[in-house]
User: Which sequence fits this backbone?
């Protein structure tokens, strides 16, 4: 994609700008075996997130959405490309500068239990980032922790409990309180509700939306559950084999998808009314290997509309003609 083409919500101030991001993993060479090509987990991905906006990254397992999100925070070091937060380039920051910048970008993980120290009481887990970022007064930290527990719907006495004493939903609330502690501008949500029961999922998603409305936090939301994505997102970017193939505002994407892959993905969303006939389309074949992605359009080996040109020319992610709302971009020669 041409980095000058904005994928931000039209008319809104950009907080995060990602341009031509790549993450290629080199595969160790085996003795006497020929060198193996790198795994192109993320390849030439560009997008923007506005202040107070939720941009969701969706796609099937292995499409590169989590790698993209973690590369933005440099939890995974990108191979190349640019990540700018508030106009500051993150990819060239030294370790200490990056640590300081992380107070503006926090993360909520899929498995809250694995991301919380089992040896610390909940109050200390949430107070840790405050201590690391200079809040030296124990009384101030305690007050801030009590306030954060209230904001995420945990009772004050829960500060003394250990992570194993919480339910899954409560543990995710704890993870959210920790992410909120430093007043971040952006929170990367890596499948934050996938491991929770459906009823608890709704509570956590609504909590995230309430916190966004109150504090103006932007979310980069990684998910595979399209019902959740539809509920929480302002815009959605669809990824296939390491690249974004379509980006649009939520309503446009769900009501008038254009890329054949998006159409197939959305056709799998269950219809609530059993009398409505299902329009489910099936994706043919297995996803190709990111170590050897197809030439031209990466989707051509599975696309029902593929033509000869699709095998040789990669379609750019580009705006659609005037019949689409502003900001709708698709990477397809024919849509
Ligand atoms: Fe299908 Fe060709 Fe469009 Fe790719 S460019 S999505 S193969 S029609």
Assistant:
């Amino acid at each position: 994609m041409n980095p000058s083409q904005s994928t931000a919500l039209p008319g809104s101030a950009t907080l995060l700008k990602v341009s031509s991001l790549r993450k290629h993993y080199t595969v160790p060479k085996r003795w006497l075996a020929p060198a193996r090509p790198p795994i192109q987990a993320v390849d030439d991905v560009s997008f923007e997130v506005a202040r107070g906006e939720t941009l969701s990254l969706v796609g099937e397992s292995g499409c590169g959405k989590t790698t993209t999100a973690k590369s933005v925070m440099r939890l995974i070091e990108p191979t190349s490309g640019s990540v700018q937060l508030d106009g500051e380039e993150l990819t060239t920051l030294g370790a200490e500068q990056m640590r300081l910048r992380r107070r503006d970008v926090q993360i909520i993980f899929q498995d809250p239990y694995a991301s919380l120290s089992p040896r610390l009481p909940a109050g200390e887990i949430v107070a840790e980032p405050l201590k690391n970022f200079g809040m030296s007064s124990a009384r101030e930290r305690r007050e801030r922790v009590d306030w954060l527990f209230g904001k995420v719907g945990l009772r004050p006495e829960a500060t003394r409990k250990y992570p194993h004493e919480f339910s899954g939903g409560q543990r995710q609330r704890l993870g959210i309180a920790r992410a909120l502690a430093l007043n971040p501008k952006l929170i990367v949500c890596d499948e934050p509700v996938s491991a929770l029961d459906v009823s608890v999922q709704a509570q956590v998603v609504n909590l995230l939306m309430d916190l966004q409305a109150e504090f103006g936090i932007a979310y980069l939301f990684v998910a595979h559950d399209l019902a959740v994505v539809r509920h929480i997102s302002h815009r959605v970017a669809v990824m296939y084999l390491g690249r974004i193939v379509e980006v649009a505002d939520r309503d446009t994407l769900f009501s008038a998808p254009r890329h054949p892959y998006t159409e197939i993905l959305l056709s799998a969303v269950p219809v609530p009314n059993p009398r409505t006939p299902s329009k489910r389309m099936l994706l043919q074949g297995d996803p190709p290997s990111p170590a050897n992605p197809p030439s031209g359009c990466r989707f051509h080996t599975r696309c029902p509309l593929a033509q000869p040109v699709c095998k040789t020319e990669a379609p750019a992610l580009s705006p659609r003609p005037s019949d689409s709302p502003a900001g709708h971009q698709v990477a397809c020669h024919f849509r």
Q: What stands out?
A: The mean pLDDT is 90. The chain is about 30% helix and 20% strand.
